Amino acid sequence: MTITDALIAYGLFVAKSLTLVAALGLLAALLFRARHSGSGGDDDDGQRLEVVDLNHRFEQMTDAIKAASLPPKLYKKGVKAERKAEKAKAKANAKTEQVDKRRIFVIDFHGDLMATEVGALREVVSALLTTANDQDEVLVRLENAGGAVHEHGLAAAQLLRLRRAGIPLTVAVDKVAASGGYLMACVANRILAAPFAVIGSIGVLAELPNFHRLLQEKGVDFELHTAGEHKRTLTLFGENTEEGRAKLREQLEDTHGQFKAFISRYRQSLDLGRVATGEYWHGEQALELGLIDAVQTSDDYLLAARAEADLFKVRYRARKRPLERLLGSFGLIASPAHLTLSGPIRAVTRRVGRWLKGTALH
Length: 362
What we know:
By secondary structure, this protein is an alpha/beta fold. The protein has a domain at about 100-210 and about 240-360: 2-enoyl-CoA Hydratase, Chain A, domain 1, CATH 3.90.226. The protein is built from 13 helices and eleven strands. The chain has helices at about 5-35, 55-70, 70-95, 120-130, 150-165, 180-185, 210-215, 240-265, 270-275, 285-290, 300-305, 320-335, 345-360, and strands spanning about 50-55, 100-110, 135-145, 170-180, 190-195, 200, 205, 280, 295, 310-315, 340. Strand 3, helix 5 (about 150-165) and strand 4 form a beta-alpha-beta unit. The longest helix is centred in the N-terminal third of the chain and has 34 residues, at about 5-35. The radius of gyration is 27 Å and the shape is extended.
């Protein structure tokens, strides 16, 4: 071995050692943070309800544009006039002891395969039920492409609590409310969608790779023992049977039937024979089919409403420990056999399946 070769080998050794030390240090930091992240903050567990005054935010944006675009004298004159009008209005309200505007509470829900925001949604809904009334309104800005049946069913049930309490509920879809997302949207009194938002995909699917033949080729036996005729229909590693496939298809049809029945309860004018095919449509098409009530973005809706309503964005923050986030991400990949409400997420799950198969083959 030459000196050059020795230096190269030594450099590689040092690089590997530093990488290992860095990885161990990162793991130690994550574990330390997971242990101590509950301390401090507004609550002992780091959980809190946040309320943002959207009217004030809009006013700040308007004021910034005026300050930058108007002549200084004209800008100052306008500010004085606005302050004078606000004082007169506040004085009048104080005399009558009445609030002149209704309230619109805005909730953002960003869905994923397992609807992991449902816990925060539950807390926000519970908080709103203690203060909102039938003169107020809840606007849910929904972005959800579907996922697991039980999780999205729970998310829909949370929104249903508002409707059953008599609080007007509006769902605004700027991007997508497909499958499990539409299951959530359909409980609203009114559904809005942007012109090219994806709406519909009322269907159910279950898909998973099967490694039985690969294990056979490698001489690996796989045993599965169950108690109960249909405890397991299809499996990742065992040999699947036609009986198992038939039972899974039966379960899919049953879930699809429940999906359609739930939607028809709250969108009674829908022709489910036309829309419950797993297809999806964009805004204008969805309006013609009765899937939505108006083509409008959430931004335009709020801008139009701010003149006659006080707007508040409500969010529940729950601090997730790094270890929980890590385990949660593994949990999403480890449950491919769950029934999922179909939608654009189908392409993603197929890619995951191909990736899993490629990993096994290598």
